[in-house]
Specification:
Structural class: mainly beta
Shape: globular
Largest sheet: 7 strands, mixed
Distance between the termini: 39 Å
Number of helices: 0
Oligomer: single chain
Helix content: under 10%
Radius of gyration: 13 Å
Length: about 120
C-alpha cells in the first residue's frame, strides 16, 4: 500500500520560501505511472491544486502560483519537494501531497501538514 508523508517547517516568515517534502513508501515515484501532486486548503476555504511532478519528471503548476512554485524530486530517496517562494499570510494552509492517476483520480493522500505564514 502506498503511503505518503509530508514534512517541513510549520511556520514560515513572510517573503521567505516555504519548502515541504513528501516521502513516498510502497510505490515508486519514477516507475509507477502517476502524478505526484501538491494540494493545499486555506482556513475556511476549499482545496487548491498547486502542481505536480509526473513519473517522467515533467512538472505542471497552477497558473495562479506558477511564478512562485517549483516541484522537484530526489529519486534516490523516493521523495518530491514543493518550494513556494515569496510567501504571504495568504499562503497559510494545510498542505497535502497526493498521488493522481492518469484519469485524475486522487487515490492516495498524505495526512497533511499545517503551514502558517507569520512574522
Amino acid at each position: 500500500q502506498v503511503r505518503q508523508q509530508e514534512s517541513g517547517p510549520g511556520l514560515v516568515k513572510p517573503s521567505q520560501t516555504l519548502s515541504l517534502t513528501c516521502t513516498v513508501s510502497g510505490g515508486s515515484i519514477t516507475t509507477d505511472i502517476y502524478y505526484w501532486s501538491w494540494i493545499r486548503q486555506p482556513p475556511g476555504k476549499g482545496l487548491e491544486w498547486i502542481g505536480y511532478i509526473a513519473f517522467s519528471g515533467s512538472t505542471r503548476y497552477s497558473p495562479s502560483l506558477k511564478s512562485r512554485t517549483s516541484i522537484s524530486r530526489d529519486t534516490s530517496k523516493n521523495q518530491f519537494t514543493l518550494q513556494l517562494r515569496s510567501v504571504t499570510p495568504e499562503d497559510t494552509a494545510v498542505y497535502y501531497c497526493a498521488r493522481a492517476s492518469v484519469t485524475g483520480e486522487y487515490n492516495y493522500w498524505g495526512q497533511g501538514t499545517q503551514v502558517t505564514v507569520s512574522s
